[in-house]
Amino acid sequence: MIRIEGLTKSYGNALALRGVSFQVPRGQVVGFLGPNGAGKSTTMKILSGFVTPTSGTAHINGIDVVEDSVVSRRLIGYLPENNPLYEEMMVLDYLEFAADVRGVPRIRRKERIRSAVERCGLGSVLGKDIQQLSKGYRQRVGIAQAILHEPDLLILDEPTSGLDPNQIVEIRNLIRDLGREKTVLLSTHILSEVQSTCSRVLIISDGRVVADDSPEQLSTAQGGTVTVVLASRSGAALEPGQVRTVLEAVPGVTRVEPGEAEGSGTLGFRLRYGQEDIRRALFEASVRHDLCLLEVKRQHVSLEETFRKLTGGEAANPETAPRAA
Q1: In whole angstroms, what is the distance from residue 108 CA to residue 117 CA?
Q2: Which of 22, 36, 76, 319 is such that its CA lies 20 to 30 A from the CA of 264?
Q3: Does the keyword Transport apply (predicted)?
């Protein structure tokens, strides 16, 4: 559905995109992440036809967005971050106007509006002016106008920005529902939203794609910690230095730190590891050295920490906001 190759964009001397390339197949919900100024909005503006690239190509369903801009725009439903709406219009009047602008055939217009209203939960506010609506309902109106013409691709820029927790859940569920039928490119700073709605994550930093994987793989690829509590199988007292030496020799372990024990005769440690799951090797080492594993708990680096590491923030720390496995 989306094919971008070698995309660059300059604003004077400032280079916003530096050779961005990626593809998105039909029917995928993709989280498009990056810090402010990374190039997310520029990429989405190029896809939606608002901005032309300096070099490179962008295609939507095989159609070049520069050479066939009008045709490619018909395939897109776009919700910009600021969600521009005509606030003095009633919701129904605005949707009829949007359907007209989108070229929805008059014979199908009533049915398309009914479908969008039903999917976005706008039935109770159709007769209200948009300026009377809460932020959550305004976002719903913005999404409704984006799907009126039944586009193949939805581009949503910060769709839950400024919403309260209940509204976020409502919009998140709506996006998840739309993702069952359409390709969705979702830009957001709320990483929990990405984990719950997206099957794939693209992270852009300084105009380049720095990561492309599932949320789960991005977290596990950065390693984490395994906390263990051990005792002697024979009941003999454990010597901390000797046990530490055994743990440091386990393949994949990068660091061993003291941890909490469970009582007399037990020792606790926290093992840092990289990409390799160390639990099998840990069990085998324990058996060889007559140790009993009373507790083993693995914690991945969170998606937030992975994002910070890949975009130039603080290095990933598996003890910050961990996710137990």
Answers
A1: 14
A2: 319
A3: yes
The neighbour count for residue 123, using CB atoms within 10 Å, is: 10
Specify the CATH number for the domain of residue 31: 3.40.50.300
Model's pTM, two decimal places?
Answer: 0.75
19 with 123, same domain: the answer is yes
Q: Report how many domains make up the chain.
A: 2
State pLDDT tens for residues 130-155. Answer: 999 998 899 999 999 999 999 999 99
- Distance CA(299)–CA(319), nearest Å, equals 8
Measure the CA–CA gap between 233 and 179, rounded to whole angstroms.
Answer: 52
Single-letter code of the amino acid located at 109:
R
The two three-digit tokens of residue 211, written as one number = 């990561």
At 225-250, the pLDDT tens digits run 899 999 998 888 899 999 999 999 99
* Strand pairing class (183-187; 153-157): parallel
Residue found under tokens 């976020």: 168
DSSP state letters, 216-285? HHHHHTT-EEEEEEEEETT-PPP-HHHHHHHHHTSTTEEEEEEE---STTEEEEEEEE-SS--HHHHHHH
* Structure token pair of residue 254: 């990068």
Task: Assess whether 49 and 163 both reside in one domain.
Answer: yes
Final residue of a structural domain among 218, 244, 277: 218
- Structural domain for 54, as ranges: 2-218
